[in-house]
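Per reviewer request, we include the raw input and output of the structure prediction for the construct analysed in the revised manuscript.
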Amino acid sequence: MFGLKKKTWVIGGVVAALLGTAAFATLRDHSPEKRVQRVTERVVGKLDLNTSQEEAFSKVAKSYVSIRGTAPEFMLDLSSKLKELAKDETLTVEEVNQLRDQIKSEFDRRADVLVPEFVAFYNTLDDSQRERVVNKLDKLTDRIEHRISKKNYRKKANESE
């Protein structure tokens, strides 16, 4: 798609998840404008972005907030469809797959907006900044692996009781 290597897409997607979702998730009680401002400040500070890099990230942040704004309507629609299915006496695989396809379509719509902007932003980073992103990803991976091993340990302990 955009003539980019698979590695760049993967890194861009991870940067999206790391810098976008996590940062925005911490700011649920703020307006979208304050989210954009706060997240941009955090990323600018952590990665020491220059003006053009800051502008590139600002585009990503604003796009995220704009597409995120449609989430409540989508979730409300999805919830009402789930309620209707739950009321039926029978549930078919086809009905569930239709909902799954709608969810996938919504995810793809959002990704189509965000991924190119994240890749453009990521490609503005210098080697030092990319190294900081990789270090952050390593820490994130370690935390996830720790949670998984902790969960597995508890699961085994419960099974042995």
